[in-house]
């Protein structure tokens, strides 16, 4: 697993190497901060876990929906990475998260599967379950390969 090269509270400077990753399929600093772990990543599929620590609680004591969404989006992105050459730029173009049940404790698992792959487009579906294997959320995302334009990168 990679790591930070500067204090984590340092403002991000584009183009400056402030962190490293140990490979194409690895966790970025934000994902490490949330405690995510890659269990499996192969051929358009990925399984990630994340512990429900107290710092991920919302006001009612359940796991925050933003943390669950981050886990699902990361699992989806890792699934896409398994189908691309290293360093291929891509981005989430659209995502949808449907919450089905609250997470009260334990380890959460996100299982991502490639549903559709076109030239520059990847549709991924993710199921999120709690420690009791109860489905707590359904997630889908549309990822696009970026193309270089004279005014920067574009996912359109």
In short:
With 156 residues, the protein is mainly β. It has one domain: Hotdog Thioesterase (Thiol Ester Dehydrase, Chain A), CATH 3.10.129.10. The protein has helices at residues 29-33, 65-81, and strands at 3-4, 19-20, 37-42, 45-51, 90-99, 107-117, 121-129, 135-145, 147-149, 152-154.
Layout of secondary structure:
Elements: E1 3-4, E2 19-20, H1 29-33, E3 37-42, E4 45-51, H2 65-81, E5 90-99, E6 107-117, E7 121-129, E8 135-145, E9 147-149, E10 152-154
Question: Taking all residues together, what is the mean pLDDT?
Answer: 93
Question: Total domains, how many?
Answer: 1
**Helix proportion of residues, in percent?**
10-25%
Largest sheet, strands/sense/barrel: 6 strands, antiparallel
Measured on Cα atoms, how large is the radius of gyration?
16 Å
Low-pLDDT stretches = none
The structure class reads: mainly beta
Side by side, the strands of the main sheet go 3-4-6-7-8-5
H/E topology pattern: EEHEEHEEEEEE
CATH class: Alpha Beta
User: In CATH terms, what is the fold-level topology?
Assistant: Thiol Ester Dehydrase, Chain A
- The number of distinct helices, counting runs of at least 4 residues, comes to 2
Shape: globular
Which superfamily, in CATH terms, is the homologous superfamily?
Hotdog Thioesterase
**Architecture in CATH?**
Roll
The total beta strand count reads 10
């Amino acid at each position: 697993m990679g790591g930070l090269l500067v204090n984590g509270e340092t403002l991000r400077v584009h183009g400056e190497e402030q962190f490293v990753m140990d490979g194409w399929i690895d966790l970025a600093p934000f994902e490490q901060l949330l405690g995510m772990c890659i269990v499996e990543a192969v051929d358009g599929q990925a399984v990630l876990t994340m512990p429900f620590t107290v710092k991920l609680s919302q006001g009612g004591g359940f796991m925050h929906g933003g943390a669950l969404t981050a886990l699902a989006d990361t699992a989806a992105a890792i699934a896409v990475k398994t189908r691309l050459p290293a360093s291929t730029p891509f981005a989430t173009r659209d995502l949808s998260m449907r919450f089905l049940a609250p997470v009260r404790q334990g380890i959460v698992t996100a299982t991502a599967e490639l549903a559709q792959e076109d030239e520059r487009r990847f549709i991924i579906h993710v199921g999120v379950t709690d420690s009791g294997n109860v489905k707590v959320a359904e997630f889908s995302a549309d990822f696009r390969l970026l193309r270089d334009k004279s005014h920067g990168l574009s996912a359109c």
